Amino acid sequence: MFELQEKIRQCKTMAELDELRLPIVKASKEASIAECNDTQNIFRKQKNRIKRQGGVIG
After folding, report:
1. CA 57 – CA 37 distance, rounded (Å)
2. Which of 8, 23, 35, 58 sits between 20 and 30 A of 2, alpha carbons compared?
3. What is the per-residue pLDDT for 54?
4. Half-sphere exposure of 26 (CA within 13 A, CB side)
5. What DSSP assignment string belongs to the chain?
6. Origin, by domain of life (predicted)?
């Protein structure tokens, strides 16, 4: 789960984020609720960051 969180933080476009949706769902089945919540929060924050930058960071 921590590897996915790092990948989420490194995403620069919405397309990159969308590619991680399925791996997140698969990993969440084996992770604790706290880890899932953390991952969802990181995903949401990164998505909002990308939206504020006009769709692309960097």
Report:
1. 24
2. 58
3. 87
4. 6
5. -HHHHHHHHH--BHHHHHHTHHHHHHHHTTS-HHHHHHHHHHHHHHHHHHHHTTSB--
6. Bacteria
Average pLDDT rounded to a whole number, residues 21-31: 94
**All residues at 6 or more sequence positions from 57 whose CB lies less than 8 Å from its CB, including other chains:** 11, 12, 13, 49, 50
Q: What is the pLDDT of residue 3?
A: 94
* Rounded CA separation 20/1 (Å): 12
CB 12 within 8 A of CB 58: yes
* Residue that the structure tokens 């960071």 belong to: 57
For residues 5-44, one letter each, b for 16 or more C-beta atoms within 10 angstroms of the residue's C-beta and e for the rest, the string is bebbeebeeeebbeebeeebeebbeebeeebbeebeebbe
